Amino acid sequence: MNTIQNPILRGFNPDPSIIRVGADYYIATSTFEWFPGVQIHHSKDLKNWKVIAQPLHRISQLDMKGNPDSCGIWAPCLSYDKGVFYLVYSNVKSFDGVWKDTPNYLVTTEDITGEWSDPIYLSSRGFDGSMFHDSDGKKYFLNMLVDHRQHKFFGGIELQEYDPVQKQLVGEAHYIHPGSSLGCTEGPHLFKKDGYYYLILAEGGTEYGHTVSIARSMSLFGPYELHPDTSIVTCRENKKHALQKAGHGDFVQTIDGKWYVVFLVGRPLSEQGRCILGRETAIEEIAWKSDGWPYLKNGSQLPRLEVPGPDVEEYRFEKSPIRDNFDSEELRIDFQSLRIPKDESWVSLCERKGFLRLKGKESLTSTHTQVLVARRVQHFQIEASTSLEFNPKTILEMAGLVFYYNTGHYHYLHVTSNYEGTKKILKIISSDHFEMIEQEQEIDITDQKSIVLKGVLDYDQLQFYYSLDQEANFSPIGAVLDASILSDDYVREGDERYRPAFTGMFVGMCCQDLAYNRKHADFDWFEYKEINKNK
Fold first, then answer.
1. 524 an active-site residue?
2. How far apart are CA 108 and CA 123, in angstroms?
């Protein structure tokens, strides 16, 4: 029997929606403002997973330009019926104020790694939509209701029939459940077993009070009664547990009849502290008791770090090389951009063979046209490095290596110029709650054609380095930086108003030309590797 290590999807991969098609398992996770939208992960053993698709890769499917931080794709739902994959998703356009703009869409395909359809608009009544395929052939769309009255926000769960012929919702919306006293009821998923409709809910808020709650009914339209314990997965009563924030789950049944639940978790640096890797995905085994309710098989509500896997042969995927030399015509799937698709207007692997060329556009504060290509940070201790060629002629031209959370929180080691354009300079800037912080140390690299930039992350500490001799020797630059500001938890701290903060730390390459939006930077390679694995 294989033992599954939690989390199964490391780094920013929250809000899992899971299905099984034959011997294959698929999980869809949220991507928020990162493009392409939605990550689809594949496994054959529930232990080893690989991202195989990011289906929303056309603007016709996903237009996020101008979306605020941590808006965009919220809680996608992946389902399957009669040879067709269905993907429901929200593209959240606004969050401030009493109203929220949360249009929901549906795309379909017969090939999960192929092209997905253009979207079918469903509704904007709420978010976290999902599709339920009933045994009588009818299909239903579920969502949480955004209720703006008296700042309520979480208004309960609705259900409405979807007509696949007309490609729209039909009939009236049915209010089926208000949620429990835990509040913040969202993330509905529905499945049918032994004559009952089981409604899976995310409750308690997506922080340290988070849960997976369950309700059931003999009728699709309710009323739904709550589980005897309300929640089946939560860490809200155990502040010292290694896995925290457990909630927002979905169920799957294996070929041999076992049941598992997947759900998001966070791994804090200290007791209920900051989770620099964002919200990740974990798994637990389910036992169905004589009362007809599901419980964790381990006898508690706490997720374990190790979980017995299904009785199948372990299936491992080939690992990606540590270094990407940019020798292919497409970027690896683990690289994403912010809000906009990667196209030749700003990113190219063809204009200079063997290099990634980024053509500078707007600032790191922009929610429209940022030139940034980055990947998730998935380990607490890493080295990330890149080789850069860049010749700036003004202080408004910059390029380099960035550890990024959102438009107001990042650490950026970059090459720029003095005002006169006579010197090429290496320096560090950080943003903390949108306040710009510049390190005093600057390195004159005017005579250097290329430079290697490196960041070493050690839990909450980040140290930048540079090399002028192609990695033979590295020198530190600047002070040790606080990496924990690149977390949901920190972004919410000390803020006069609640800002949505639901993503995680990324590291990657970027270029800005704040003068004319045309200066390019060439990156010869990018490397990401885990260090000190045994600590």
1. no
2. 17
